[in-house]
Design a protein that fits this description.
The complex is a heterodimer of chains A (367) and B (410). By secondary structure, chain A is α+β, with helices and mostly antiparallel strands. Helix content of chain A is 54%, strand content 14%. In chain A, helix 7 packs antiparallel against helix 8. The chains are: A alpha+beta (367), B alpha+beta (410).
């Protein structure tokens, strides 16, 4: 058994952590928070040049061919740094959708440009409130023309192309790809301004089908992305645990460090437990992605539930550990609290994934 | 990443499986072994017979030196054997403490001729060992123990009381930590011994537990004489020796107790809410999903530990996570399963109860799981202080001679 990342990937993790701690400082994240920029474009350029976006894209399509474990390692670091870049939208969603559902020609057309950063991708699924399900999809493609409104779309305001979930002439949902040039869009005000969110309004926009896998293909993209987002969430949760730990050691009250009180110790121990369980579930997801295992959907739902709950717990209890100072704009606790909710709502919230998890358990146990 | 055994591990796993298949009943479908029932005389005989069989086949004391009947195998093989054994309904509950904690402590501190005398009979299950640590005044604060030993020539004379001693009533020998100098601060005045549980002056009284079982005991010492040659470690070094024992406790990752998530899922298919199987109810589904995620999280955390073990690393305090999560989960699943049964959940009669009463039984035994071997609170302290590096709590008794430490309101 070797249930750990290879030495090479551990090096990649250390390198990317060092790089992001230097280049993706809180000051950089706050430029997006304060509305000075939609995303950290200069940082995005550097990330592209290092080949991270295409980490899991095969070399024949312009990627780095590091495999999914490599992408998982990078995802964790993106989460730790609350990176204000369209990494998930481009790498876990758009590129994955094209890779798993697209034709060879579509892969050749889009993947190299996504990998080298010349195109930003996004995934247009939601149409307002509600979780991912076929009946919630009203956008339609008729005669190669897409019509409908999608919101919120993560990074929709800065993307060049969108993978869109829309219904065909027979009202069956499927994956499509559309160029966003000329599509009307507006940036949305959201809980987490460190990530761009937009409303896209397609009015007879040209769109190509990505295969004909229907809702199964959509769910497959969601499952795979859930594992990658889980790593991002674990990274964010771990950062919160570290912040809380540091603060508990340096903050004194009643003549002693607050970390010497059991009320704080036990809170941090519970955060640690949640993060470790989530990390272990994410690791299994990483293995399932790499091996394209048959129980990938169950591994994904488990990782998603575990990581979303861990990040939620860690981000709120980090604020609580800080006390009043943690509720200020100036201290970074809220960056993680916001990001935790943003990631928890993207690609379906916890109740949706819990229900799916039990569906999959029932199917497995019936077999 | 991969879940494959090395060729050596795979060969060992198939040997272990072949041995188990030939000598034990598969666990699936068998009636779960319930902690509530404790060990009666027949169960003790089954445990002894099984241990001897295991020792004959070379599957006992896998990591121990060959001269004591062990195999000098790497710890990963022990984990593999344990994994395989959980698929079979083998007798448990008599040797975990002796082989997991007492004998490893002996192997660190006892004299060679003592090891020649004691290790093999323990390994073969002929002699049972217990660990005499907790006291009425020293549980979570173990070093507050007050049982005293006074030197008398080549012997020590022990007086006092231990409590919560698992299996003392079935044991032949025990390891004990006692106070030899009450004038020193509490950690410094302790000394460690092993002793014959049949020594004059030892009285064992089983405790009638809230679960109905009698597995833990009170052990009273009245002028019990122990030769100085049975001292383990130097006089005053008892705390250090105790930590060796407790480190071994951490290595013994507890087996998964039932009901597990699959048992709850099975139950939720049978019982009804609003005329439909409970499994169709959204609230029930959320609970099952939550516990599945915790359960899998622990399983894969164990895999990470195994990976570290197979690379020759030693598991540290982070292993506290297992019992901390498992014990509460057991209690919560047990209670929730009974909620699904409604009023019928109260019934224990064999012909009427669901799932051999495993939910009810676990509800009654779970409080002990959350206390024994480090309470939830102590495990959280261990994680906070030794994994996360938070400062220790401020102690009111620090540096104080033990006999000056306050022990009550007066």
């Amino acid at each position: 058994m070797n249930f750990d990342f290879s030495e090479d990937l551990k090096q990649l993790r250390d390198q990317s952590r060092r790089f992001l701690s230097e280049r993706c400082t809180p000051a950089v994240v706050r430029r997006s928070l304060d509305g000075e920029e939609t995303h950290a474009a200069a940082l995005w350029r550097e990330i592209a040049d290092m080949g991270w976006i295409g980490a899991a894209i095969p070399e024949e399509f312009g990627g780095a061919g590091l495999g999914y474990e490599g992408l998982c390692v990078l995802a964790e670091e993106m989460g730790r740094a609350v990176a204000p870049v369209p990494f998930g939208s481009t790498a876990y969603l758009a590129a994955e959708a094209i890779l798993t559902a697209g034709s060879d020609a579509q892969r050749r057309e889009y993947l190299p440009k996504l990998a080298d950063g010349s195109l930003i991708g996004c995934f247009a699924l939601s149409e307002g409130n509600g979780n991912p399900e076929p009946s919630a999809i009203h956008a339609r493609v008729v005669g190669g023309r897409l019509t409908g409104a999608k919101w919120p779309v993560a990074d929709g305001g800065i993307a060049d192309i969108a993978v869109v979930v829309a219904c065909d002439e027979h009202r069956q949902p499927n994956l499509y790809i559309a160029d966003l040039a000329g599509v009307r869009r507006r940036n949305l005000t959201t809980l987490d301004p460190t990530r761009n969110q937009a409303r896209l309004e397609f009015e007879s926009a040209p769109a190509q089908a990505l295969g004909s896998g229907g809702w199964g293909a959509v769910q497959r993209v969601l499952d795979r992305a859930a594992i990658l987002f889980a790593f991002e969430q674990v990274g964010g949760a771990d950062a919160c645990l570290h912040m809380a730990r540091e603060y508990a050691q340096e903050r004194f009250a009643f003549g002693r460090p607050i970390g010497s009180f059991q009320a704080i110790k036990h809170k941090l121990a519970d955060m640690y437990v949640a993060v470790e369980l989530a990390r272990s579930n994410a690791y299994y997801g990483a293995w399932a992605l790499g091996a394209d295992a048959t129980d990938l959907p169950l591994a994904a739902a488990t990782a998603r539930v575990s990581a979303t709950e861990a990040f939620h717990l860690a981000s709120k209890e980090n604020i609580q550990t800080h006390g009043g100072i943690g509720f200020t704009w100036a201290v970074d606790c809220h960056l993680f609290y916001r990001r935790s909710k943003q990631l928890g709502l993207a690609i379906g919230s916890v109740p949706f994934w819990k229900d799916r998890l039990v569906d999959l358990l029932e199917t497995r146990n019936a077999a | 990443m991969d879940f494959n055994d090395t060729p050596e591990e795979a060969a060992f796993r198939s040997q272990a499986r072949a041995f188990l298949a030939a000598n034990a009943e598969p666990r699936a479908g068998s009636r779960p072994v319930l902690r509530q029932s404790g060990l009666d005389a027949a169960a003790v005989q089954r445990c002894k017979a099984w241990q001897a069989k295991k020792a004959d086949a070379g599957f006992a004391g896998l990591t121990w030196p060959k001269r004591f009947g062990g195999q000098e195998a790497s710890p990963i093989l022990q984990v593999i054997y344990n994994q395989e054994e959980t698929d079979f309904a083998v007798p448990r509950g008599l040797y975990e403490i002796g082989l997991g904690m007492c004998i490893p402590t002996m192997m660190t501190y006892a004299k060679p001729e003592q090891l020649d005398r004691y290790v093999q009979p323990a390994l073969r299950g002929e002699e049972v060992w217990c660990q005499l640590f907790s006291e009425p005044a020293g549980g979570s604060d173990l070093a507050a123990l007050r049982t005293k030993a006074e030197r008398d020539g080549d012997e020590w004379v022990i007086n006092g009381q231990k409590i919560w001693t698992s299996g003392a009533h079935l044991s032949d020998f025990g390891i004990v930590v006692v106070r030899t100098d009450p004038n020193l601060p509490k950690h410094e005045g302790l000394t460690f011994f092993f002793l014959d549980m049949k020594s004059p002056g030892i009285e064992v009284r089983p405790i009638h537990q809230m679960s109905g079982a009698r597995h833990f005991n009170e052990v009273f010492f009245t002028d019990v004489r122990v030769p100085d040659s049975q001292r383990l470690g130097a006089v005053g070094q008892g705390w250090k020796v105790s930590l060796t024992t407790l480190m071994n406790e951490r290595l013994a990752v507890g087996d998964v107790q039932r009901p597990e998530v699959d048992d709850l899922l099975e139950l939720a298919r049978k019982v009804k809410i609003d005329g439909k199987p409970a499994i169709r109810n959204g609230a029930v589904r959320e609970k099952i999903a939550e516990w599945h995620a915790r359960s899998q999280g622990l399983k894969f955390t164990r895999f990470r530990t195994m990976t570290a073990l197979s690379k020759g690393e030693t598991p540290g305090p982070e292993n506290s996570i297992h019992k901390l999560v498992n014990a509460s989960k057991l209690q919560d699943i047990a209670s929730y399963g009974m909620d699904l049964m409604g009023a019928g959940g109260l019934v224990l009669d064999d012909d009427l109860t669901e799932a051999y009463a495993m939910f009810q039984s676990a509800l009654l035994s779970a409080p002990s799981a959350r206390i024994a071997g480090g309470s939830d609170e102590i495990l959280r302290n261990i994680i906070a202080e030794r994994v996360l590096g938070l400062p220790p709590d401020i102690r009111a008794d620090k540096g104080m001679p033990f006999n000056r430490v306050p022990t009550g309101r007066r």
